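Open question from group meeting: does this chain pack into something compact, or does most of it stay loose? Before anyone orders reagents, we agreed to write out a predicted structure and look at it together. Recording both the input and the output here so the notebook holds the full record.
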Amino acid sequence: MIQQHERIGSLCEQLKMACLATEWPGLAQQAAQDEVSFADFLEKLLGRELAAREQRKRVTLLKLATMSAVKTLEQFDWNAGSGAPKAQILELSHLAFVERAENVVLLGPTEPAS
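Structure tokens returned:
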């Protein structure tokens, strides 16, 4: 059994599936306990690998963007901000304008004046 784990780990490394290499034993054990089908196990395993790749991609793209910092709406100081009302900005955060194929233009400084 240990040799099989090593072979699977080696294959995952060769296929560049880092997440799969670390997550498959736990997911396999859970699948055996829950008596799920092999297809369900495989789907969950591949889903985890895909999610891990997407996360690595986001991290890499953020690094390449050379932004000074990542800022979110949760971190926004609504007391210091001026311009569009809070409700309007929060509405934009739902991204419904994308589905409606509308443009959004935001003007102003990126940092509040000190």
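Observations to bring back to the group:
Residues 38-64 form the longest helix (27 residues).
Helices lie at 2-14, 18-34, 38-64, 86-92, 96-99.
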